[in-house]
Amino acid sequence: MPKFTIVTPNFQGNLGYAQEMQGLSGLDAEIIEAPDQASFAQMVKGADAIYAKGWPVGREIIESLTKCQVISLGSVGVDSIDVKAATAAGIPVTNVPDTFIEEVADHAMMLLLAGFRRLIEQDKMVREGRWREGRPALYKNARLQGQTLGLISFGRVARAVAKRAQPFGLRVIAYDPFVDETLMSELGVLPATLNEVLSTSDFISMHAPARPEVHHMLREEHFRMMKPTAVFINTGRGPTVDENALIKAMQEKWIAHAALDVLETEPPSHNNPLLRMETVTLTAHVASASARFDDARKTRVGLELGLVLSGKWPLSCVNPAVLQHTKLRRWQPVGMGRGPNS
């Protein structure tokens, strides 16, 4: 019997674990799949680690764990895990916050430009033989250079978006009460309040992580504060936005355009009004996707599992306060910038 047992959901079928096992080499560890959620809840009780994906790991499951040393996710978001319960139980939760940064930032910038230049509408005009309507449709657009991009949350993706936006001549401001303002200034970004971001920005890009405290962070009153010419972009998480409020904002033209990679319910219902709006650009939660997606995240998960099971601090812990109360050994010579906004 292996020394370490790692339990993971089998909700997508057996995908193989060659990449994850690279980080577990020499540890006599085995990854075991749970066929359904009921079995998962039972199997994790005696597991040494949980490789979480898809199925929620709530308080009841966490409080049932007898020897779990770590809960690892192959995603940036940790909303499927009750992090507070894990912290109370002294269990580190790891994610992969730096694996897909460039891809998501590229996608956010693409949505910004596509929304601003009305790419979908322009494409439709050409295909429908309305060639001459293209230029007049953009005559009211201001020049991109000199406009303001407001970032909500200033984590790694938002910083990468700022880096991409500045060469286009955009003035960048950001709201994040958990990030040192001097860091923003060093990156050429002006610190701002949430109200300032909402009321003065021509483009508003949402990057808040999906955590309970930011559920429906943007509501009707926030969309009412935005400029009628504003473009709203979301490549973060859908539940951070009250989607009914966004729908109302689009229907009543409080803002000009929404460019969304994430929605509150995914996939959306066929009767979701956003699907029928010409002023909305949609992609299917694909911002992080690239040829390196699966290999990169799986390898990173294996590394995190291997570090903890070998008695070392993980690279990326979203609840770092637990580490000082474990027997895990700090081994990195430099700071690791942990946390949900890192």
Describe this structure in words.
The strands form two sheets. This protein has a seven-stranded parallel beta sheet with strand order 8-7-6-9-10-11-12, with helices on both faces. It has a five-stranded parallel beta sheet with strand order 2-1-3-4-5. Strand 7 (about 170-175), helix 9 and strand 8 (about 190) form a beta-alpha-beta unit. The longest helix has 17 residues, at about 295-310. The chain contains 13 helices and twelve strands. It folds into two domains: about 5-100 and about 290-325, Rossmann fold (3-Layer(aba) Sandwich); about 100-280, NAD(P)-binding Rossmann-like Domain (Rossmann fold), CATH 3.40.50. Helix content is about 30%, strand content about 15%. The protein is α/β, with parallel strands linked by helices and about 350 residues long.
Strand elements, count: 12
- Number of domain units: 2
Taking all Cα atoms into account, the compactness measure Rg is: 22 Å
Shape annotation: elongated
Q: Pairing-aware structural class of the strands and helices? A: alpha/beta
Question: Would you identify the CATH architecture of the largest domain?
Answer: 3-Layer(aba) Sandwich
CATH class of the largest domain: Alpha Beta
Main sheet?
7 strands, parallel
Give the end-to-end Cα distance, rounded to a whole number of Å. Answer: 38 Å
CATH superfamily of the largest domain: NAD(P)-binding Rossmann-like Domain
Into which percent range does the helicity of residues fall?
25-40%
Segments where pLDDT lies below 50 for 5+ residues? 338-342
- Give the strand line-up of the largest sheet: 8-7-6-9-10-11-12
How big a fraction of the residues is strand?
5-15%
If you consult CATH, what is the topology of the largest domain?
Rossmann fold
The residue-averaged pLDDT reads 93
The helix/strand order is: EHEHEHEHEHHHEHEHEHEHEHEEH
